[in-house]
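Exam prep: given the inputs below (a chain plus flavin-adenine dinucleotide), describe the expected output before reading on.
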Amino acid sequence: MTENLELYDVTILGGGPAGMYTAFYSGIRELKTKVIDAQYQLGGTLLYYLDKMVWDVGGIPPITGKQLTEHLIQQVNTFEPTIVLGQEIDDLERRDDGTFVLTSTAGDRHWTRTIIMAIGFGGLRKSVKIEIDGAERYENTNLYYSVHNLEDFRGKRVLISGGGDSAVDWANELEPIAASVTLVHRRDQFKGLERSVSNMKASSVSIRTPYRVEGFHSEDGVSIQQVNICHAESGESEQLHVDAVIVCHGVTYEYGRIREWGLGIGKWNLDVTDKMETAIPGIFAVGDFVHYGSKVMLIAGAFNDAVLALNSAKLYIEPNAEKMARISSENTRFNELNRQLGVVDDDE
Ligand SMILES: Cc1cc2nc3c(=O)[nH]c(=O)nc-3n(C[C@H](O)[C@H](O)[C@H](O)COP(=O)(O)OP(=O)(O)OC[C@H]3O[C@@H](n4cnc5c(N)ncnc54)[C@H](O)[C@@H]3O)c2cc1C
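Solution:
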């Protein structure tokens, strides 16, 4: 290697339920583990239903998506894997020695013996961009497609474009924090949850319908200071002064350049063997990304895939290793952790 890259046994692409449980199990099997996700938080699809109750995960009583995400994050950290967030991986290099180098769209590189793909159904969720020439130049300043930190908007005049769940939810979340919130939507009806829409209408959010955003004006060429909105029927234009613009025009799913890796991805999923093997030796796949005869597209199914894939990766790296991890009580990996929990081992 020409660069000072650190070699990992297992690199898991995707930090949703499948990726997180795979990383935990990889720790049990004493493999040096890294998890990479394009999002800035672990949780995968769970992050899109944080308030929903989840009833069907074995051994866990009804729990919100948020609580389940927190439990999974606590569990994944048990063996302290390396976690890399905010990196979209799109390139794969297979080296002569059988190892792989993964590269992100920003050029970050990761060196690994095996890869476990946990990239979900349909691949990466991407925001639909606003159709205004040159809008991308404001993405580094005050044009947002998602909200990572509510505090970024404290005391600001915020304009939100869109009429679905996200637009309405962000309007409600930001209303008590921002100096003002204006929601611009091209229709009079909203697609958001009825209760959220009623809350928004009863609040100080200024609702401008049927209007669409037709242009941005910048005095410094760096950030947006004014937004031109246009009445959908009369065509009449108006200028609004803003400090930040949030665009919520929906999402698309795409595998991007991962399709070119030679895995043989179908329209939505990837066919794998019963050992979670893909067409490329050393690369395994799990969770909603995969398809096989009896595949269960639920979190319970993702957990099962995780164990199978990780055991396959372990045997790929160490062909003489045990086929699966021992049960917790027979696994020395848990002795120290039991002590930390105050549990005394019978044999001691
Ligand atoms: C509204 C809704 C409600 C649901 N309710 C339930 C329920 O009650 N019970 C249940 O069991 N299941 C439920 N599910 C299904 C469950 O969420 C999925 O089965 C589960 O999330 C699959 O986990 P995963 O880790 O395979 O994929 P995901 O959770 O989709 O995670 C994939 C991760 O991979 C990352 N990724 C993708 N491509 C890249 C890339 N190129 N580089 C870096 N990172 C990448 C993504 O950012 C994402 O974080 C629900 C699903 C939805 C949509």
